[in-house]
Specification:
about 100 residues, alpha+beta
């Protein structure tokens, strides 16, 4: 004979709530060769930033060595890193784009 167990309401609520997936920052790294204008274009094209915001991020990359382009789920962040890296290589620029866990 099967026995029915009462569900603890707090346990049932925990099961319904799925943990949010970790988010990742997409970051551009500074180098001495990639033109600032190219970085602004990349930020506009791949991250949807307006001219003013793209310029702010580009200056942060230039002055601080790195700048956050956006925060995304892992697959989207990886795709953006790949797209930016491929685009930079096609235009013969050494621009580096990485992703890191957003803590």
């Amino acid at each position: 004979m099967a026995t029915q167990h009462q569900l603890d309401p707090s346990l049932a609520e925990k099961e319904r709530r799925a943990a949010a997936p970790p988010m990742y920052r997409v970051v551009l790294l500074n180098d001495d060769y990639t033109p600032m204008e190219f970085v602004v274009e990349v930020l506009q094209q791949f991250f949807g930033l307006g001219l003013e915001q793209a310029t702010i991020v580009m200056l942060k990359v230039h002055k601080e060595g790195r700048g956050i382009c956006g925060v995304y789920p892992r697959d989207i962040a990886a795709t953006k890193v790949s797209q930016v890296s491929q685009h930079a290589r096609q235009h013969q620029h050494p621009l580096q784009c990485i992703m890191e866990v957003n803590e």
